[in-house]
Amino acid sequence: MQSEAIVDWPAFARARAQLGAEFVRIVGYFREDGAKSVRAIEAAMRANDPVALVMPAHTLKGEAAQFGAMPLSMLAELIEMTARRCIETHDGPNELIEDVVRLRPLFEATMALFDRELNPLRTRAGGFGRRVA
Question: Ranges for the HPt domain (predicted)?
Answer without folding.
Answer: 19-121
